[in-house]
Amino acid sequence: MEYKSGLAFAQQLDHQDELKSYKSQFSHPTQENGNPYIYLCGNSLGLMPTSTPDAVKVELEDWAKYGVEGHLEARNPWVSYHELLTDKMAKVVGAKPNEVVVMNSLTVNIHLLMVSFYRPTAQRYKILMEYSPFPSDRYAFESQVRFHGYDPKEAIIEMMPNEGESTISLESIRETIEKHGDEIALILFGGVNYYTGQAYDLAKITEYGHRKGCVVGFDLAHAAGNLKLRLHEDGPDFAAWCSYKYLNSGPGSLSGIFVHERHARDFDLPRFAGWWGHDKHERFLMSDDFKPMPGAEGWQLSNPPILSMAAIKASLEIFDEVGMDKLVEKSKNLTSYCEYLLHELDTDRIKIITPSDPAQRGCQLSLSVKGADKSLFNQISVAGVIADWREPDVIRIAPVPLYNSYEDVYRFVEVLKDQLVRP
Ligand SMILES: *Cc1c(COP(=O)(O)O)cnc(C)c1O
Fold it and tell me: Is 2 inside any structural domain?
């Protein structure tokens, strides 16, 4: 698309936007003066759909009305509540329903999946991870490695970015897997790096890894609801993601997991078990022998928090209505428009460290601002923008196609201009 400068052009794009009506289906935080903030932080915590309070209230009412009988009598019976989320969540990540379940929090799930899929041997014990993963992932990987009696310094290979860049080329990933593959037990990458916003080629990484006999998994925290994913087709062994970032399901909300169909009946895989993973037809017989369900559901441990699931249900209904194709189409335009306006700024202080190739990013742009410290970020906040600051000098912004407008992006760049160019 050809972009132009000026507010009128932004408003014209909004006018033509097929998804424009969704902005009002979300609650936008407001400033003290009563104006809404320009919210560009959906990569950290997505906004609340206005349908969420009612969805949660239904479960509170049924709890009040039925008590324990709600497990079977509630309008959405709690005993099978997670099943209400499965089909829609599977669509969001391009999986088959039996490959997906919603359970626990993300880091918990990374650990549980590593119990099954990180099976080091004396010859093959290493983990290959992306450069600078989200800290929780690093802690999880290192503690798993130690748990198996290895030294993280030796057992973890961290991909390094290309010389003078912040991102990792697919070619260097291929070379690393080629070179170290025989020693790598598990490749565990992000889908989109939280810091740089770089999106990785899941299909290719999976192919390279499998060719060398490695197990391949992904942490899709910044990819689910952001990229068009095709997990079944791309074929990684497993994945996990949270639902509170692009999936707008509320602070600390539950995580989704994917276990590829090829492992659905791998009952010999070691796993940490709990009663919710037991064959659901026999669960309440309370038998002594654990009999896991086939598919992703067999990894569940506990009966899930219904109030959190109600929020996920409300959010997934919106995703189901819009579909990832339309979301991604708008996302590409919105983010390219933001990139265009940033390039138009007359300053050499801003460097976009996110790849400019739309195939290698989602909606997030990470801006490294020369000579900036957190005071720049604070000034932007005072001027009505909620973004995200990462030391030493990076502002992360995520124009989210569901609830951000072209005008939001325009106004954000104007605020930045006021701080960096105009004085
Ligand atoms: C947000 C995020 C997490 C957070 O984990 P929780 O267990 O939900 O607190 C973990 N890993 C990645 C890559 C993330 O982006």
Answer: no
**At which residue do the structure tokens 């000034």 appear?**
379
Q: Are residues 134 and 267 in the same domain?
A: yes
Ligand 1 pocket check for 195: Cβ under 6 Å: no
For the CA of 107, the closest atom of ligand 1 is: 7
CA quadruple 294, 214, 203, 269: dihedral, nearest 10: 10
17 and 148: one domain? no
Element containing residue 319 per DSSP (H, E): helix 306-322
Ligand 1 mutation target, pool 103, 242, 245, 396, most atoms within 8 A of CB: 242
Q: Is the pTM of this model over 0.85?
A: yes
Q: Output the pLDDT for position 158.
A: 97
Residue 282 shares a structural domain with residue 386: no
- What are 339-349's pLDDT values in tens digits? 999 999 988 99
**pLDDT digit string, tens, across residues 254-300:** 999 999 999 999 999 999 999 999 998 888 887 889 999 999 999 99
The CATH number of whichever domain residue 93 belongs to comes to 3.40.640.10
Same domain, 260 and 368: no
Shared domain for 101 and 194, answered yes or no, is yes
Orientation of helix 7-16 relative to helix 406-420, angle to 10°? 160
Q: Ligand 1 within 6 A of 388 CB? A: no
pLDDT number for residue 306:
98
Q: Quick one: pLDDT at residue 422?
A: 66
3-state secondary structure of 127: strand
Q: What's the chain's Rg over C-alpha atoms?
A: 22
- C-beta 239 within 6 A of ligand 1: no
Given the CA of residue 242, which atom of ligand 1 is nearest to it?
A: 8
State in Å: Cα 375 to ligand 1 middle. Answer: 26
**Average pLDDT for residues 154-160, to the nearest whole number?**
96
